[in-house]
Design brief:
mainly alpha, 4 helices
């Protein structure tokens, strides 16, 4: 599944198709704040109904991608 996500992301980027964010502004703000990752995961779960595992993976991926943009 991860490989499909990466392939889809690469394809969308090459085609210059922007996908709307799955994260609310509040989740983004909390996720990027130091020491508030757990709070962001909880809020994401509440907003989306995703499992704990899915929420953790989504938030960690968002944080990683956000950090890559600033490198």
């Amino acid at each position: 599944m991860k490989r499909m996500d990466i392939s889809l992301s690469l394809l969308l980027n090459r085609m210059e198709i922007e996908v709307p964010s799955q994260f609310s502004d509040r989740v983004k703000q909390i996720a990027l704040a130091p020491y508030r990752k757990i709070e962001a995961i909880k809020l994401y779960r509440e907003e989306t109904g995703a499992s704990l595992r899915e929420s953790k993976e989504a938030i960690e991926e968002f944080i990683e991608q956000s950090q890559e943009k600033w490198r």
